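pinned: reference chain
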Amino acid sequence: MPPIPGSGLAKGLAVTLRTMTKRSHTAQYPEVQPELPPRSRGVIGLFEENCTVCMLCARECPDWCIYIDSHKETVPAAAPGGRERSRNVLDRFAIDFSLCMYCGICIEVCPFDALFWSPEFEYAETDIHELTHERDKLREWMWTVPAPPALDPAAEEPKEIAAARKAVEKAETAAAAAAAAAAEANPDTTAPDADPAPEGDA
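pinned: its structure tokens
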């Protein structure tokens, strides 16, 4: 059966009339802060102690909005006779949020968990050049990162923890076996000998 001419228009007007009779709810921002979802993408926080200046985040960023500067320092040998090592020291870590498209690739590719999503969103500026935030500001946002959700008690044990536990159990078993073998090879010589015969007996 063909649709009645004008039925779509009538349905649309019915929806309009139905919503017109309902009172709209307006959130009085900034007096009332919005309730953000737990995985909201506000800004990116930096935990610089974990950053090794591997440059993966800057290389993988599709907008090239991450700026990193570093220098090398020589670390003395940990033990006498060892050789010195060099390590990268972070000098600058900045993100230009006027270019960032909040894709989260930099957070995903960081192998050392130095970047995190923060729900902070109140960082508007009147000048676009002030949207480039340096590592001090990124570190301040790090402390607003919400804690990760609790693990499901019915979930499987993480592979890393299971591997570490198995390694510890294997080492303990090997140590116990080595101790038992050593005890068999070297019997206890401190056990008291049999009572000697009396001197008068022949």
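why pinned: The chain is about 30% helix and 15% strand. The mean pLDDT is 86.
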